[in-house]
Amino acid sequence: FVTQNIYPIIGLAVCVFAVATIVQEYVRGVAARRSINEESVGTAMLNLMRRNGRRYGGYMVHLGIVFIGVAIIGNEFYQLTTNVTLSPGESVAIGGYEILYDGMESSRQANLTEFGANLLVVDADSGRQLGVVFPRRNIYDKTPDMPTSEVGLRMSLLEDVYVLLNGWEPAGASVTLTIYINPLTVWMWIGGLVLVFGVLIAIWPHPARRPSPQTTAASTTIAARA
Asked: What's the farthest any 2 CA atoms get from each other in the chain?
């Protein structure tokens, strides 16, 4: 991603620092349990969250918030968009991709007609096909003047290719599209899942701490003297 704006760079740097800090806390906790109890990494992590759910669930909530922040920064400062009309075989370059129009398709359903554009997503540098997106318009029999849209979407951890079908000529002679490149959007969903998981860990009932032998012995002695 390239930008002349310093604010998203600062924001992403803060997010990276926050993630590193949270990961460090987990690493320290796991290392401590392994050294004391000789547990495996997985067992140590599980017991860490069972015994200290509020603390480590809270860390996970913060991690989810950071992921959501990363997605917001990506969409706010690095999003690309273009409106274009393509004929079959034509393509448009945007954000390192070539979006190639490969023809129109239509199909009849029970109460609607579906129109969609076949679009190939190609890596602009290597020419390798990355996938196919199929934005659609559904025209209902009872309300033909109120069509609904279904986006064509290719998701990845780095960015999403998001395409809307705005219109077309008869027989698919051309289509009009709005194309978005939305960086880091999937981290919004990942962050939401991590946040919810962290909340569940934090509020889940945890086993009570067992008193140490010294504490038990002291309590017994006091009771005997009384």
From this structure: 98
